[in-house]
Design goal:
mainly beta, binds zinc ion
Length: about 100
Amino acid sequence: MLSKKFQRKIENFVCSHCGQRVKGAGYTDHCPKCLWSRHVDINPGDRSAECCGAMEPVGVEIKGGEKVIYYKCQRCGFEHRVKAGAEDDMAAIIKLTEQVI
Ligand SMILES: [Zn+2]
Ligand SMILES: [Zn+2]
């Protein structure tokens, strides 16, 4: 870890949950491998949350071919959802669809 301080720009990061190196791709805010995210947004992409807690993927909803991942912050309980990215791990997404939201 170079710095624990959050930087307000798009960059690569290492997933704090599974250790996967994630390439920043503009709006990528979650790990494509385990799908875990960080509580950094209040509104999608605004990066204005101060919490930085781990966001657990708690479920997936598939709507008209689009996959929406539901998150809950492990630290403050904040709930959030984002569209799954094209490079997200399908097996991980399918596993989540089996969970009851
Ligand atoms: Zn991960
Ligand atoms: Zn939080």
